[in-house]
Design goal:
The protein is of the alpha+beta class. It has a single domain (about 55-260), classed as Fumarylacetoacetase-like, C-terminal domain (Fumarylacetoacetate hydrolase, domain 2), CATH 3.90.850. It has helices at about 5-20, 35-50, 120-130, 150-155, 205-220; strands at about 55-60, 70-75, 80, 85, 95-110, 130-140, 160-165, 185-190, 190-195, 230-235, 240, 245-250, 255-260. The strands form 2 sheets. Strands 1, 2, 3, 5, 6, 7, 10 and 11 form an 8-stranded mixed β-sheet that branches. It has a 5-stranded mixed β-sheet with strand order 4-13-12-8-9, with no helix packed on it. Helix 1 (about 5-20) crosses helix 2 and helix 3 (about 120-130) crosses helix 5. It is globular, with a radius of gyration of 18 Å.
């Protein structure tokens, strides 16, 4: 078996080559598949270091109300709505089809350096550290031919399939809104494909922010002032072809829009 450090470095190199060349992997070589979440997070970090990227935000994905996973989003992959995703602004090469997920994102006003143990107090502390809420569109691209066919740790090492995040205008009075029951309209190429309310997988888009703040502290890091956290799709995953315009309108949060 390869030493852990070499395994992490080689797995990161495989994923980076797929990102740069546009060639999709069926899986990582068996000897390089991360055997734990800790290894998958180390592969994430190795890729960020190799690409000399700075962290501008986070994708926080919850498996249930208490557990989840996260991936850093590069500052260069945070795109201000409305925007056009071009070869210059997309981190990966070779993508002609993209996944999109309409999401609610939050920007932090202050760094979360510590959290209370009481759940109610912890929630209040994280909410107090948030500056604004935003309509967002997560752009999803995998470095694997079929991401459902590889292990969860391989998907985690691949930044949970995050490609970029399109962020709408800030809403600073978001605390006055029923953030779990916002209206949502999703349109593609001018045609409305969805209209409804709510839709967050946990019915609470704040839970992934609260969980992430604690998880980063446990891993020796912190959720920092200015960083954006996106919190999970409110309408599942849709596949979008190159050339199409997509918008996600969250009513009082306004909308995020991107052209592929």
């Amino acid at each position: 078996m390869l030493p852990e450090g070499e395994r992490i470095a080689r797995a990161a190199a495989e994923l980076l080559e797929a990102r740069r060349s546009g060639t999709r992997l069926r899986s990582l070589p068996a000897a390089l598949v991360p055997g734990s979440e800790a290894e998958a997070y180390a592969i994430q970090q190795a890729q960020f270091s190799a690409m000399q990227l700075s962290i501008g935000g986070w994708k926080s994905t919850m498996f249930d109300a208490l557990t989840g996973a996260y991936a850093p989003i590069a500052t260069s992959a945070l795109l201000t709505s409305p925007t056009k995703l071009s070869a210059a602004s997309a981190p990966s090469a070779g993508s002609s089809e993209f996944g999109i997920e309409p999401e609610i994102a939050f920007r932090m006003a202050r760094t979360v350096t510590a959290l209370p143990t009481d759940p109610g107090e912890r929630r209040a502390a994280v909410i107090d550290a948030i500056a604004s809420a935003h309509a967002a569109i997560e752009i999803v691209v995998s470095r694997f031919v079929d991401p459902d066919a590889v292990s969860a740790n391989e998907r985690l090492a691949d930044f949970l399939l995050n490609e970029a995040l399109v962020v709408g205008p800030p809403c600073t009075d978001w605390r006055e809104l029923d953030i779990s029951r916002l209206p949502l309209q999703v349109s593609v190429a001018g045609a409305q494909l969805y209209s409804g309310r709510g839709g967050h997988p946990l019915n609470d888009p704040l839970l992934p922010v609260i969980w992430l703040a604690g998880a980063l502290l446990e891993h020796g890091s912190a959720l920092k002032a200015g960083e954006v956290v996106t919190t999970g799709s409110c309408n599942g995953l849709r596949k979008i072809a190159a050339g199409q315009v997509v918008s996600a309108d969250f009513g009082p949060l306004e909308r995020a829009q991107v052209q592929f």
